[in-house]
Amino acid sequence: MVFGVSAEATGKKLKLFVNIVALVFWAVVIPFAVAVCVIALTYYSVYIGMLEIYEWILIGALLVPVPALCAYLVYRQHAQGNMLDTLFKRNPDLWGPRSRANRYEAERAERMIRKWF
Protein backbone atom coordinates (compact mmCIF):
# COMPACT_ATOMS: atom_id res chain seq x y z
CA MET A 1 0.00 0.00 0.00
CA VAL A 2 1.86 3.03 -1.28
CA PHE A 3 -0.27 5.58 0.57
CA GLY A 4 0.43 3.96 3.96
CA VAL A 5 4.17 3.88 3.37
CA SER A 6 4.17 7.48 2.23
CA ALA A 7 2.16 8.61 5.25
CA GLU A 8 4.49 6.69 7.56
CA ALA A 9 7.57 8.23 5.93
CA THR A 10 6.01 11.69 6.18
CA GLY A 11 5.26 11.10 9.86
CA LYS A 12 8.84 10.03 10.49
CA LYS A 13 10.18 13.08 8.66
CA LEU A 14 7.89 15.37 10.65
CA LYS A 15 8.94 13.73 13.92
CA LEU A 16 12.60 14.05 12.94
CA PHE A 17 12.11 17.73 12.06
CA VAL A 18 10.37 18.42 15.39
CA ASN A 19 13.18 16.66 17.28
CA ILE A 20 15.83 18.68 15.42
CA VAL A 21 14.01 21.94 16.16
CA ALA A 22 13.67 21.00 19.84
CA LEU A 23 17.37 20.13 20.00
CA VAL A 24 18.33 23.46 18.45
CA PHE A 25 16.08 25.31 20.89
CA TRP A 26 17.55 23.51 23.92
CA ALA A 27 21.15 23.77 22.73
CA VAL A 28 21.24 27.27 21.22
CA VAL A 29 18.15 29.45 21.50
CA ILE A 30 17.22 29.00 25.17
CA PRO A 31 20.77 29.42 26.59
CA PHE A 32 21.30 32.46 24.36
CA ALA A 33 17.98 33.99 25.45
CA VAL A 34 18.76 33.41 29.13
CA ALA A 35 22.24 34.93 28.72
CA VAL A 36 20.80 37.97 26.93
CA CYS A 37 18.19 38.41 29.69
CA VAL A 38 20.81 38.22 32.44
CA ILE A 39 23.16 40.62 30.63
CA ALA A 40 20.34 43.05 29.86
CA LEU A 41 19.16 42.91 33.45
CA THR A 42 22.66 43.56 34.78
CA TYR A 43 23.74 46.32 32.42
CA TYR A 44 20.43 48.07 31.74
CA SER A 45 20.56 51.34 33.69
CA VAL A 46 16.87 52.35 33.87
CA TYR A 47 14.94 50.48 36.58
CA ILE A 48 11.30 50.84 37.53
CA GLY A 49 11.09 50.64 41.32
CA MET A 50 10.57 47.12 42.64
CA LEU A 51 10.57 45.58 39.15
CA GLU A 52 14.28 44.76 39.49
CA ILE A 53 13.65 42.47 42.46
CA TYR A 54 10.88 40.62 40.64
CA GLU A 55 13.11 40.17 37.60
CA TRP A 56 15.83 38.60 39.73
CA ILE A 57 13.27 36.35 41.40
CA LEU A 58 11.99 35.24 37.99
CA ILE A 59 15.47 34.55 36.64
CA GLY A 60 16.39 32.72 39.85
CA ALA A 61 13.23 30.61 39.66
CA LEU A 62 14.14 29.63 36.10
CA LEU A 63 17.84 28.95 36.63
CA VAL A 64 18.19 27.60 40.19
CA PRO A 65 16.35 24.24 39.78
CA VAL A 66 18.95 22.77 37.42
CA PRO A 67 22.03 23.16 39.69
CA ALA A 68 19.88 22.44 42.75
CA LEU A 69 18.78 19.10 41.28
CA CYS A 70 22.38 18.33 40.34
CA ALA A 71 23.54 19.09 43.90
CA TYR A 72 20.74 16.94 45.32
CA LEU A 73 21.64 13.99 43.08
CA VAL A 74 25.33 14.29 43.99
CA TYR A 75 24.45 14.44 47.70
CA ARG A 76 22.12 11.44 47.45
CA GLN A 77 24.70 9.43 45.51
CA HIS A 78 27.37 10.28 48.11
CA ALA A 79 25.03 9.52 51.04
CA GLN A 80 24.29 6.07 49.62
CA GLY A 81 28.02 5.37 49.42
CA ASN A 82 28.12 5.15 45.62
CA MET A 83 30.78 6.66 43.42
CA LEU A 84 29.90 9.99 41.82
CA ASP A 85 31.16 9.11 38.34
CA THR A 86 28.21 6.76 37.86
CA LEU A 87 25.95 9.83 37.82
CA PHE A 88 27.62 11.17 34.71
CA LYS A 89 27.90 7.96 32.68
CA ARG A 90 25.38 7.07 30.03
CA ASN A 91 23.12 4.15 30.75
CA PRO A 92 23.42 1.77 27.76
CA ASP A 93 19.98 0.35 28.55
CA LEU A 94 18.33 3.70 27.88
CA TRP A 95 20.49 5.37 25.20
CA GLY A 96 20.55 4.73 21.50
CA PRO A 97 18.10 3.35 18.98
CA ARG A 98 16.19 0.25 19.96
CA SER A 99 15.11 -2.63 17.81
CA ARG A 100 11.82 -4.36 18.42
CA ALA A 101 13.65 -7.40 19.79
CA ASN A 102 15.11 -5.60 22.80
CA ARG A 103 12.36 -3.01 23.30
CA TYR A 104 10.89 -5.03 26.19
CA GLU A 105 14.24 -4.88 28.00
CA ALA A 106 14.49 -1.13 27.43
CA GLU A 107 10.96 -0.54 28.74
CA ARG A 108 11.79 -2.58 31.85
CA ALA A 109 14.93 -0.48 32.41
CA GLU A 110 12.92 2.73 31.93
CA ARG A 111 10.40 1.59 34.54
CA MET A 112 13.25 0.88 36.97
CA ILE A 113 14.69 4.36 36.36
CA ARG A 114 11.28 5.96 36.97
CA LYS A 115 11.05 4.18 40.34
CA TRP A 116 14.29 5.85 41.43
CA PHE A 117 12.95 9.32 40.74
* Count of helical regions: 4
Task: Give the SSE string.
Answer: HHHH
Structural class: mainly alpha
User: Which regions are unreliable across 5 or more consecutive residues at pLDDT < 50?
Assistant: 1-5
Helix content: over 70%
Could you give a short account of the major beta sheet? Answer: none
Shape: flat
* Amino-to-carboxy terminus distance: 44 Å
Radius of gyration: 22 Å
How many extended strands?
0
Q: What is the mean pLDDT?
A: 74
How large is the share of residues in beta strands? under 5%
Protein name: Sodium:neurotransmitter symporter family protein
Transmembrane segments: 16-44, 56-75
Organism: Oesophagostomum dentatum (Nodular worm)
Keywords: Membrane, Transmembrane, Transmembrane helix
Produce the secondary structure layout.
Layout: H1 2-43, H2 51-63, H3 65-79, H4 103-116
Describe the 3D structure.
- Keywords: Membrane, Transmembrane, Transmembrane helix.
- This is Sodium:neurotransmitter symporter family protein.
- This protein has 117 residues and is mainly alpha-helical.
- It has a domain at 1-54.
- The chain is 72% helix and 0% strand.
- The protein contains four helices and no strands.
- It has helices at 2-43, 51-63, 65-79, 103-116.
- The chain is flat and about 60 Å long.
